[in-house]
Amino acid sequence: MIFRILCIIVISLLSIQSITTYADQSSDTAKMILEKTLDKYDGLFSKNHNGIESISSKLLIKGGRNINIGNSGNMTVDLDLSVDLYAEQPNKFFLDISGNLGKAQIFLESEDFNLATIILPTIKQFTIINVPERIGKRYHNLQSIEGRENIMKNPILEYNGTQNLKAGKVHKITIKQASPSGQSSTVFYILDKKWDPVRFELADSQGMAVSIDIEKLNLKAKIPKEKFIPDTNGYTQIAPQQLTTAIMMQIMASGIGEVQKRQN
Questions:
Q1: At CA 55, angle to CA 115 and CA 108, rounded to 5?
Q2: If DSSP codes are grouped into helix, strand and coil, which group holds residue 85?
């Protein structure tokens, strides 16, 4: 499901700073930079740490991946999305999405971090899905040192030097699995001396190739409480199994709306 994939991507980005054990061949410079990022964002994941407790950010997501659509085989889904992301400790996430897949809102807020409410404003429908267990477990692992060590055992960290991006001078770090069968990779671009991530590039053996640029980042943002509360008044609830069909309907509705605007 397309928006379930978005949940996985964004939550993974928030949790990626948790890596604390590395393969022996990993770069010491890469370790140091990621640990500085972890220290800065630690407070967002646990009540027991000081630091950042809320953020707001704008993400630009481009790329695509193959989606299994049952008996019809696989379908390549292109992504060209803008995501307003709000996160607040503990366990509160809200994503406001727009782009080539239409509009959607995703709310994640529960003690067990196991449910997501997805709202499709264009067609006035919503559903509640189970967050994949591995994502919920990964999030909870952030709240202890032992848990962090279990998130990604012995990855290889490569330091690829510095580059100049729009945000400024950045350090480029590539993370790969140490096992020979591991074909996934994540590339981080981390702002020099501030240690904020400004860009991610994700790829895997299933055909995913996605870039995520952080256009705006507000640390310690003051976020209204109602931002994290789904407003489904006037919306029809659908079963999780109907979500993919509903998204396709919304894409079609959005496309028709754009054509009508041009004609007017």
A1: 5
A2: strand
Q: Strands, E, within 138-241: which ranges?
A: 156-165, 168-176, 185-191, 197-203, 209-219, 236-237
Tens of pLDDT, residue by residue over 157-182, are 889 999 999 999 999 999 887 665 55
Residues 227, 233, 235, 240: what is their CA dihedral angle, to the nearest 10 degrees?
60
Residues in Cβ contact with 258 at an 8 Å cutoff, skipping those fewer than 6 apart:
none
Q: pLDDT digits over 72-87, tens only?
A: 666 677 889 999 999 8
What is the pTM (predicted TM-score) of this model?
Answer: 0.78
Total domains present in the chain: 1
* Backbone dihedral region for residue 65 (phi beyond 0: left; psi -120 to 50: alpha; all else: beta): beta
CATH for 137:
2.50.20.10
Q: Which is it for strands 74-88 and 92-99: parallel, antiparallel or unpaired?
A: antiparallel
Q: Give every residue of the chain whose pLDDT is below 50, as ranges.
A: 1-5, 8, 11-12, 14-21, 151-152, 259
Of 172, 171, 174, 141, the C-alpha closest to 156 is 174
DSSP alpha helix (H) spans, 87-214: 133-141, 145-151
Phi–psi pair at 259, nearest 5 degrees: -60, -45
Residue 250 burial (CB < 10 Å; 0-12/13-18/19+)? buried
Q: Which domain holds residue 90?
A: 2-263
Question: What does the alpha-carbon distance between residue 258 and residue 114 come to, in Å, rounded to a whole number?
Answer: 36
Q: Which amino acid is at 73?
A: G
Q: Where are the alpha helices (DSSP H) in the chain?
A: 2-15, 28-41, 133-141, 145-151, 243-263
